[in-house]
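Support reply, case 0932

Customer input (verbatim):
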Amino acid sequence: MGLCASKMTDEERRMKEHSAGIDRDQRKLEKKQGEIMKLLLLGAGESGKTTVLKQMEIIYGTGFSDERKINFWLPRIRQNIIVAMRAICTAVDEKGLTDMVEATTEFEEFLSDETMGSYGHDIDMEEVGPKVQQLWMDPGVQKAWELRADYQVIESHVKYFERLDEISDPDYIPTTDDVLLCRSRTVGIVETHLMIDNQEYHIYDVGGQRNERRKWIHCFSDVTSVLFVAGISEFDQVLFEDKDQNRIVEAIELFSQFVTQVTFEDSSMILFLNKRDLFEEKIKTKPINSVKLWEDYSGAQYDNNLPPEHGNNRKAVADGQEYFYMKFIPEEIRGLGPNMRRKGLFKHFTCATDTENMKPIVDACKETILKQSLEESGFM
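Our regenerated output:
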């Protein structure tokens, strides 16, 4: 008897080809997931981009141990408080508000270069804390705080001033929120590695001040995604390094350079319009179009006679956010549809100091980055 070779039916052939295709796609996916995702974290100074990086470490990394909070972050938090109060007292002096000052001894101390120079790395908050607290309640200091858009002070540090009793306690351990609020200027390039869902990410945080930007070029090759952070609440503030330049104008000009750059045409671009909490507070007392640069704003205005959840006030926040978002989009890409660019432009309104707000946003960004990368590889 002869042996008869069985012939494969058309259906069996299709199933075999389909199975082989799945195997190829799986190998392609495994290869892609084995590659390193390179994320570039950009933004002008004081935008909150380093806080975004801290959130990624909290959400996907190991967070901050008590030891690190005490040894690394606590001295910096204390220094932030001293620097902020010094800036406010200097503004009191420069704006001719000294007649309003009641805590004159403490005020003179914070204006003294010699005294300020004595506050080194290890500040005794049991001694200094009550002085800062007395100044914070002073009418002259409060008046200068109302005018804070005219000088350099970090607005979110009001949360430190409101908790000086707790922070001055010798047994105080900074909370994660305290660490997120802490300003620690990025100098040069800070590289952070995170493993997220078996995918390795290298995140490059580079200094945002103008004198740091010349170092950015070293990070530009093979970037998977650019995360650009801008402080939306800073529409009435000027740069630390240039008092004639509005902070949002600076951020818009900087973003426009990158979103249209050929170097990044294969990189997804994610825009974080940050400090939305401060933005919502600010427009309660300072209408957007009260600032000359933004006189063309015609959206809803916040009404303090109505509750925050009222439709008008919710619309005022949404209109203001959308107004500034559109300012960031260069004319040459506005007509390109929802994706704006070949690799997509995505936006999020963020409060980088709020982990509950940031977690779903960072998760969404992770999915966007991975999806874009897989599409580029031909897997999707």
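We compared this against your earlier run and they match. Two observations from our side: The chain is about 45% helix and 10% strand. The longest helix spans residues 66-94. Please reopen the case if you see a mismatch on your end.
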